[in-house]
């Protein structure tokens, strides 16, 4: 989890293309850059290792 809740909320509105790694809006079902449907959300629950 990030230090700033606002930033986390904003990050959660994006998905990242698995192919070209560009950020897309969560509302899109395809990457606008390469057309890939393999998008993953930026997950908040992935925590950094201690
Ligand atoms: Zn892409």
How is the secondary structure organized here?
Blueprint (H helix, E strand, L loop, with lengths): L4 H7 L2 E4 L5 E3 L13 E3 L9
Antiparallel strand pairs: 1-2, 1-3
The structure holds zinc ion.
What descriptive keywords fit this protein?
50 residues; alpha+beta; three-stranded antiparallel β-sheet; 3 strands; 14% helix; binds zinc ion
Task: Give the structure's gist in a few sentences.
The protein has one helix at 5-11, and strands spanning 14-17, 23-25, 39-41. With 50 residues, it is an alpha+beta fold.
Instruction: Provide the domain count.
Output: 1
Radius of gyration: 12 Å
How are the strands of the largest sheet arranged?
2-1-3
β-sheet strand percentage: 15-25%
Globally, the shape reads elongated
Class computed from helices, strands and strand pairing: alpha+beta
Number of helices: 1
Q: Could you state the order of secondary-structure elements as H and E? A: HEEE
Number of strands: 3
The unreliable regions are none
Give a list of the ligands.
zinc ion
State the helicity in percent bands. 10-25%
How far the N terminus sits from the C terminus, by CA atoms, comes to 13 Å
Biggest sheet overview: 3 strands, antiparallel
What would the average pLDDT be, to the nearest integer? 82
Provide a descriptive summary of the structure in words:
- By secondary structure, this protein is α+β, with helices and mostly antiparallel strands.
- The chain has one domain (5-41).
- It has one helix at 5-11; strands at residues 14-17, 23-25, 39-41.
- The chain starts with a helix and ends in a 9-residue tail after the last strand.
- The mean pLDDT is 82.
């Amino acid at each position: 989890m990030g230090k700033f809740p606002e930033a986390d909320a904003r990050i959660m509105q994006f998905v990242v293309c698995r192919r070209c790694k560009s950020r897309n809006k969560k509302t899109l079902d395809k990457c606008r850059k390469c057309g890939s449907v393999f998008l993953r959300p930026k997950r908040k629950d992935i925590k950094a290792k201690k």
